[in-house]
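User: Can you predict the 3D structure for this chain?
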Amino acid sequence: MSTAKPETALLAYCRPGFEPELAAELTARAGERDHWGHAATERNSGVVRYVCASAALLERQLAFDDLIFARQKLLGLVRLDGLDPKDRITPLLAALETTRETVAAASGGTLRFGDLVVEHSDADEGRELAGLARGFGNALRPALRKPGWLTDKPDARKPRLHVLVHSGTRMELALSRVEDSSPWPGGIPRLRQPPNAPSRSAAKLDEAIHTLLTDEERQTLLRDGLRAADLGAAPGGWTWVLVRAGLRVTAVDNGPLKDPVAGHPQVEHLRADGFRWQPARPLDWMVCDMVEQPRRVAERMAEWFREGWCRNAIFNLKLPMKKRWDETVMCLDLFRAQAGELKALRARQLYHDREEITVFARR
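Assistant: Here is the predicted structure, written as structure tokens:
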């Protein structure tokens, strides 16, 4: 027999294995706003819940762009257990009825969702549910439209309904506000590897540009004729992303570059140490993916801004195996304190990141 457990909670997805870091972040962010509760998760699940009495208000106060370890931010509504594989839709519709007040508050009183997302976690067990999620979504859409829970066409003015599939008998309902959440299912960007890239790391910078920069920033800050430096450039993946955006790049690395970056007319290769080299004149961009202690990288990146060597930067901070949230806070605080006045500072653990976070800074 299926059971529905209404539980309003801040629900967030993360890279599997980083649940403790996201739990620590949500706890800290909620505490700063006087929302006292507790974070609950299962190791390697890729999902964290922050349960508190004021979760709906917390979800509105805590901007998705301010979160570092979250791939997606949702308002959890109901957890359903013991679903009958022969009929999962009937108990789901019944469970939605128990959330009418919360949904009405999020949708301006209309009790309608503008879209449906049926998804699974990025954990190994979750990815095995991709077929079930796809098929269930196709069956659920018309069932939601009939009683008026779902609009006939996607409507970004209304919240999205998310169904998180944990197993064939366990699912979870949540909602997201389009303007303050990831647009991608599971919070994972569907981006292709830049063609002819000399390394897979190119996808990381491409994701950072699409995730950490606004549409306006992408149009104005990445265009033909701008100049950039890539510190620790070899074999050239990040340089290639900048070249394809029209920038002229100084690739700084003692190691060799690979085609098509090597010998490219927009690339100057300097065999030098990225921690020592500095430009002769200010640059529009500096990017850095060097493997080094995060505090040392944060200090070096701050020096570039303090000395006026660049206007914009994207760089990675490689995190230690323990106390990764503490190290993240310390490094970003250090960068802020030493970099001088900033117009923007955003950080995120990207899908293509591993034991690291990626940071965008703008003077």
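The two ends are 58 Å apart (CA to CA). The first strand starts at residue 3 and ends at 13.
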